[in-house]
Amino acid sequence: MKHKLLAAALMAGLGIQAGAAGAQGTDSARVFPAKSVRWIVPFPPGGAADIVSRLLGQKLGEMWGQQVIIDNRPGAGGNIGTELVARAAPDGYTVVLVPATFTTYPSLSRKPLFDPIKDFTPITLVSSSPIILVVHPSVPARNVRELVALAKARPRQLNYASSGIGASAHMAAELFKSSTKTDIVHVPYKGQPPAIADLVSGQVQMMFPNIPSALGQIKAGKLRALAVTTEKRSPLFPDLPTVAQAGIPGFEVNQWSGLMAPAGTPAAVAEKFQRDVAAALNLPETRQTLMNQGFEPVGNTPQQFAAYIRAEIAKWAKVIKKAGIHAD
Predict the structure, then answer these.
(1) How many Å apart are CA 265 and CA 15, to the nearest integer?
(2) Rounded mean pLDDT of 170-177?
(3) For 85, 221, 268, 326, which has the most beta carbons within 10 A of its beta carbon?
(4) Residue 271: which of 19, 27, 29 has the closest Cα?
(5) What are 268-280's pLDDT values in tens digits?
């Protein structure tokens, strides 16, 4: 009898503690933010992540009456700034805008600095944008099917450029190779500008760059666009098919950015943050600015973003293992 009473008392105590913790999280969300928020951008100023962050930071600052401090912490492909947030206090006052490589990093690195699942609380998927498959005009392929046929007829004679090992351009090309059973040689560069420069000069034959980086060269006729990598067509290229529509079913690669907080951040705080980011993304001027840059605003829930991250990690782990890729 004594044991039953003790167990009941223990369960009641745990229930009170859980209720108190939940109430504390809700109370935190009601007053959040009560001070300035530190928004880490793990890349240098002036890039796409920086532009998106400063735009949203300004809108949120106006909405909250609190300053959103954009803190650029570049290095190690974005991993230095991201690790900084993994070790920060879990209160919602330090967040990071992570890129799509956030989900490929754990499979690429033998000694990762952080775990994208265990060390973070998802807030929202901020934006998504297509990658575009382009070839040099000398390549005798006018569409995806012809490019696949050419690659199969000439194994290891075609080269593709990327902005570095593990970058979205690299992962998209490896998924393309795996999906089409072709053998195309990878030529990594230190960033997209030198990769595109060599593509334009004909040193390499194909690439999966982001749209803003290749747009000018496509319009000038110096590169030929074959398809976009997203599920839907790009508004910037409405006549251009997706890779899936062009003959590779199920092929989809998004270059996305999402907001993460440290693990242990109260769910109520993450949900409040997400609602406000979504509201900022829905402002007409915000949407137009992002879409002009080739980005589609998203703003989904923390639960939806968490599911997306898990799916992306699983997807790219298979591609990376099959290709035998390591970044270190």
Answers:
(1) 20
(2) 96
(3) 85
(4) 29
(5) 999 999 999 999 9
CA angle 305, 311, 317 (to 5 degrees): 135
> Tokens 């974005």 map to which residue?
78
Q: Which tens digits make up the pLDDT trace of 195-214?
A: 999 999 999 999 999 888 89
CA angle, residues 152, 153, 156, in degrees to nearest 5: 70
Closest CA to 68 of 103, 36, 108: 36
Give yes or no for a contact between 132 and 225, defined as CB atoms under 8 angstroms apart: yes
Angle at 208 between CA 112 and CA 238, to 5 degrees: 130
Spatial distance between the Cα atoms of 236 and 229, rounded to a whole number of angstroms: 13
Q: Which pair of structure tokens corresponds to residue 190?
A: 């230190």
Give this prediction's pTM.
0.84
Please choose, from the candidates 258, 256, 232, 235, the residue with its C-alpha nearest in 3D space to the C-alpha of residue 243: 232
Contact assessment for residue 139 and residue 146, using Cβ atoms and an 8 Å cutoff? no
Quote the CA–CA distance of 255 and 82 in Å, as a whole number. 17
